[in-house]
Amino acid sequence: MTNTLMNRNAYGMLDPFERMARSLWEPMESLDQVLKTDINETDDQYQVKVDVPGIDKQDVKLDYRDNTLSIKVQKDSFEDHEDQDQNVVMNERRTGTLQRQYALPNIAADKITAVQADGVLTITLPKTQPSNDDGQIEIQ
């Protein structure tokens, strides 16, 4: 409420420049709400690295089903903007779920490993040999 009141002019209206600035920067704010990911492939594995700074590993859920790796992160953040006199000018809290899915075929699901260190989640997905079967079934 304090922020809203601070952005009003003498007539109780929001400053038009403030409205314009908010609409201009709003799409840029959503860009940091994406799980930034690097995927490297070798002959025998995929290695997926996901930026998860400030997120506890218990807030990350991983799943591999139907040749798809799913990553789900519960993100809660709080930015404290209190000054030395402890007058709160603004506080911002964000909460939400971030999710990404990647199609990574021919994975040995029982050998997938994941490690989280220094704000980076590293998932190693060992490959299996793809089936040489062309899908045809012989009738006997």
Molecular structure report:
This protein has 140 residues and is mainly β. The protein is built from two helices and seven strands. The strands form two sheets. A four-stranded antiparallel sheet has the order 1-2-7-6, with no helix packed on it. The protein has a three-stranded antiparallel sheet with strand order 3-4-5, with no helix packed on it. It is elongated. The model is unreliable at 1-5 and 27-31 (pLDDT under 50).
Q: What percentage of amino acids are in beta strands?
A: 35-45%
CATH topology of the largest domain: Immunoglobulin-like
Strands, total number: 7
What is the total number of structural domains?
Answer: 2
The outline comes out as elongated
At the first level of CATH, the class of the largest domain is Mainly Beta
Give the neighbour order of strands across the main sheet. Answer: 1-2-7-6
Structural class: mainly beta
Largest sheet: 4 strands, antiparallel
CATH architecture of the largest domain: Sandwich
Mean pLDDT: 77
Measured between the Cα atoms of the first and last residue, the distance is 77 Å
Order of helices and strands, N to C?
Answer: HHEEEEEEE
Q: What is the CA-atom radius of gyration, in angstroms?
A: 23 Å
* Number of continuous helical runs: 2
Low-confidence stretches: 1-5, 27-31
Helical proportion? 10-25%
